[in-house]
Design brief:
- By secondary structure, the protein is of the alpha+beta class.
- The protein has two domains: 92 residues, PH-domain like, CATH 2.30.29; 43 residues, no CATH class.
- It has five helices and seven strands; from the N terminus they run βααααββββββα.
- The strands form two sheets. A four-stranded antiparallel β-sheet has the order 1-2-3-4, covered by helices on one side. Strands 5-6-7 form a three-stranded antiparallel β-sheet, with helices on one face.
- Helix 2 packs antiparallel against helix 3.
């Protein structure tokens, strides 16, 4: 294992938490209001909460020589280094896209690595350095 770290987006920015119960309430109201079904109202709450789980739950990341792994709640994401088409830098995060060229699908495919604060394991500079080195090594191995 090259690096393992954990981030919790809710703790990083707790001011946004109000949006989750607001959206869940709206989904429940629409589910019940349109269909009259309490089941669909409950389903709306569950779906909104599941969609927000990346924000609500701690995320564990693991970088290994074979690829990257992310886990939060029931979600388990992984990508081999050879499948990474592009590495996109963002503020406090590194996005691994399976596409070699920009595409609208970049928004829904790949893995976002949220970084820890600078100076701690999993900080942006450390994550970016390891990712770039591993992606380059994978490209050379498959060339």
């Amino acid at each position: 294992m090259l690096l393992e770290w954990r981030v919790h987006l809710l703790r990083r920015d707790p001011r946004r938490v109000w949006a989750v119960p607001a959206a869940a309430t709206l989904a429940a109201a629409l589910g019940y209001g349109i269909t009259g079904s309490w089941f669909l109202a409950l389903l709306g709450i569950v779906l909104v909460t599941a969609a927000a789980s990346e924000y609500l739950l701690p995320i564990t990341y693991r970088l290994t020589t074979s690829g990257v792994y992310a886990a939060y709640g029931l979600a388990r994401l992984q990508m081999e280094w050879s499948r990474v088409g592009r590495v996109l830098d963002g503020e406090g995060r590194v996005k691994l896209s399976p596409f070699t060229k920009p595409t609208p699908l970049d928004n829904v495919r790949g893995i976002v690595l949220w970084c820890a604060p600078e100076g701690s394991p999993g900080c942006h500079s450390q994550v970016r350095s390891i990712v770039l080195k591993q992606v380059e090594a994978a490209k050379k191995a498959h060339a």
